[in-house]
Amino acid sequence: xxxxxxxxxxxxxxxxxxxxxxxxxxxxxxxxxxxxxxxxxxxxxxxxxxxxxxxxxxxxxxxxxxxxxxxxxxxxxxxxxxxxxxxxxxxxxxxxxxxxxxxxxxxxxxxxxxxxxxxxxxxxxxxxxxxxxxxxxxxxxxxxxxxxxxxxxxxxxxxxxxxxxxxxxxxxxxxxxxxxxxxxxxxxxxxxxxxxxxxxxxxxxxxxxxxxxxxxxxxxxxxxxxxxxxxxxxxxxxxxxxxxxxxxxxxx
Length: 252
Fold this sequence. Notes:
35% of the residues lie in helices and 29% in strands. It has 2 domains: 8-168, MoaB/Mog-like domain (Molybdenum Cofactor Biosythetic Enzyme, Chain A, 3-Layer(aba) Sandwich); 176-250, Alpha-Beta Plaits, CATH 3.30.70. The chain has 9 helices and 12 strands.
């Protein structure tokens, strides 16, 4: 992985009727976003959830591919009739949809010739010219074509594969974070937080304020994020000074 000192942005495209219907809860977005930031210095700036509809997949893949350095898709690369992600992406990039010889051999060895049925063979079909993303859990590989990286929707399998995408990625700046939980309400600190945020506007520090209710306590979680550890620490100290000045209790 080549390292560059700049911000690199990615998008995630969740593909699947089961997610939109509520039958399946998505667990992949937070994992992918966290992994990309921590391991690659890549920030996820947009997430979309779309159905298993060819035209919709094609439009969103092309749109996101033009806007972001990388696009990660999840879902729709399995053996069933509604797994149409690979075919749709082939059409999006005007690539032949065909068997990848290496993927075919991997799956044939995994299942054995007798059990290597048409549904399982389908998982070896992808856009011509794709690079494989190897799967240590269930053999069926994902693939990369242009700047789009296609992964399965099953969270445990995706997690086992994500490390194999690293060789395709350029490394950017890692974003660090700090947080503090306060026993107060947002309106009690909103003006002061705005002043602090404005003072760090040119130092690439972002301050987020998120209310919570825990153990009968109403509070606010203040989250600071920055690619500069020095600026992050200084801003965090300013927040703590505000907390001390207003005599706000910290929730531990």
